[in-house]
Amino acid sequence: MPDWDDREIIEGAKSPGKEELSFNKLVLKYQERLYWHIRKIVVSHEDADDVLQNTFVKVWKSLPEFRSESGLFTWLYRIATNEALTLLKQKKRRAFAPMGGDLEQKLSQQLQADPWFDGDEAQLRFQEAILKLPEKQRIVFNMKYFNEIKYEEMSEILDTSVGALKASYHHAVKKIETMLGGD
Questions:
Q1: Which ranges of the chain does DSSP label H, i.e. alpha helix?
Q2: What is 120-183's CATH number, 3.40.50.300, 3.90.950.10, 1.10.10.10, 3.40.50.10420?
Q3: Gyration radius (Cα) of the chain, Å
Q4: Rounded to an integer, what distance in angstroms lies between the CA atom of residue 14 and that of residue 88?
Q5: What are the domain boundaries of the chain?
Q6: Could you give phi then psi for residue 71, rounded to 5 degrees?
Q7: Were 48 and a residue from 12, 20, 39, 141 both cysteine, which residue would form a disulfide, CB within 3.0 to 4.6 Å?
Q8: Widest CA span in the chain
């Protein structure tokens, strides 16, 4: 990941003639981290690519007005998370249409059929257990377990208290342990 200073990127986005270069730096710096964050929410590579693209379109339109009230990283994750959740809501509406089926089951099937998934049987069971979590617990678990995001940053991204996030993570861990046969 390139090590450009976020302040430099933001200032460049507000400077005539430097907007595109600054945006390209932002994309290069954060696209991989955002992709994997989104991917853990939506599961499918194609959906993650679509959400990532939508995220960067929103960022491009809003970056010149970014006021630095939160960190750039936090702002990007909030947009990416909201875009991923919007896609899931759309999929859920379609899944509940007649003959649609269960969204979590469809996500699990996508995971199993995904050519990018290279885990063994234990990893597949772990990922399927994560998919069975309620949406908020799944997002909190992924952000803490895989991305190692601090609760304080998560609180800003998800607009939820630190205490609620800790409780969600704790419940998610317990549910996963139960689903995998541990106590």
A1: 6-13, 19-42, 45-62, 72-95, 103-113, 121-131, 135-141, 151-158, 162-179
A2: 1.10.10.10
A3: 18
A4: 33
A5: 1-118, 120-183
A6: -70, 155
A7: 39
A8: 58
The pTM for the full model equals 0.77
Q: Packing angle between helix 72-95 and helix 103-113, nearest 10 degrees?
A: 110
183 residues of the chain, pLDDT tens digit each: 567 899 999 999 889 999 999 999 999 999 999 999 999 999 889 999 999 999 999 999 998 888 888 899 999 999 999 999 999 888 877 765 444 446 566 666 665 556 555 566 777 788 889 988 998 999 999 999 988 999 999 999 999 999 999 999 999 999 999 999 865
- Dist CA 133 CA 27 (whole Å): 30
Q: Say which residues have a Cβ less than 8 Å from residue 69's Cβ, sequence separation at least 6.
A: none
Domain over 1-118 is classified CATH 1.10.1740.10: yes
Tell me the C-alpha distance between 97 and 46, whole Å. Answer: 22
- Do 45 and 29 touch, CB atoms closer than 8 A? no
